[in-house]
Amino acid sequence: MTDPAIFKDHPWDALDPTLLAQAAKVPTMLAPAEQRFYFWATSEWMQDEGAVVDLGCYVGGSTARLAAGHQYAGHTGLIHAFDRFGINEAAKEHFLYPRGIAPFEGTETLDLAIDLLTPWTERISLHPGQIEDQIWEDGPIEILVMDASKSTRTMDAMMRTFFLSLIPGRALVVQQDYLFWRLPWIAIQMELLADYFTPVAFVPEHTIVFLNTKPIDADALKVGMVTPLSHEQRLDLLERAKQRLIAAGFDVEQPMNELIETQVKHPHAERARHIPLKT
Ligand SMILES: C[S@@+](CC[C@H](N)C(=O)[O-])C[C@H]1O[C@@H](n2cnc3c(N)ncnc32)[C@H](O)[C@@H]1O
Q1: 143 C-beta neighbours (distance < 10 Å), count
Q2: What is the per-residue pLDDT across 151-191, written as a single tens digit (0 to 9) for each?
């Protein structure tokens, strides 16, 4: 399955829910449609020509959905999942314990993720640590999932480390938090790189999926840097991103307006923590 026209029909929404039954045991922050998309991306879209990379895998929820699809299709490559694998008490109480994880001491989640991902161990490689400190030496990337975009610095670092390995014409970049109101820099970076990526799907709640259409080179990495941009440049890029997505037929005017509002209210924010939560 290689024709990008396939995205128009949202085939992941017709996924048999039993295919996600085992992965559903791993806690995730993903919405139901996003979970279906992850399985579909590795089972139907990818052709086993490169690696799957999951940036910000939490305790393995996204990785499990990707791995379930990867296994279903019988792919032989690896899924590389990156995270600092840390958690605080409040997040344990809010996200893990209500989903059946037994209470545990400490802040480390690497062992928990290893345990939860046991059904797919042979196809997963975990990379603990700050993503900004990581290197990528594992060849072409076919699916790149980005869910650790909490600051402009991290965005630029992830782009520099992973985008050069995307397979042109085939690689998907899944921007998990593109439409989340607190992270305007994702839309800004993808708009900077509009010559290299085409938006192919809006997957509620917050995901925009891009197809890499042109080889990423050193020039592209310079073009895609968000950190040096002024507030005015960021605002202009957000407006252009909004028009591009609406022209692509995605119903995203309201969340794009929220991103623009965030940029207007917090012109100097460089990380999510600089932007207060809405009360
Ligand atoms: C929204 S959660 C990911 C949710 C996950 N994809 C799922 O399926 O539920 C974001 C994750 O990114 C990780 N993260 C954020 N910034 C990071 C960084 N700079 N380095 C390493 N991990 C990071 C956090 O530890 C957290 O687990």
Answers
A1: 27
A2: 999 999 999 999 999 999 999 999 999 999 999 999 999 99
61-88: pLDDT as tens digits: 999 999 999 999 999 999 999 999 999 9
56 lines ligand 1 (CB under 6 A): yes
Cα 86 to ligand 1 centre (Å): 9
Ligand 1 within 6 A of CB of 60:
no
Integer Cα distance of 178 and 207 in angstroms:
6
- Domains of the chain, residue spans: 11-267
Class (C level, CATH) for 11-267 = alpha beta
- Is any ligand 1 atom within 6 A of the Cβ of residue 61? yes
CA distance 112 to 174: 25
For the chain, the residue count is: 279
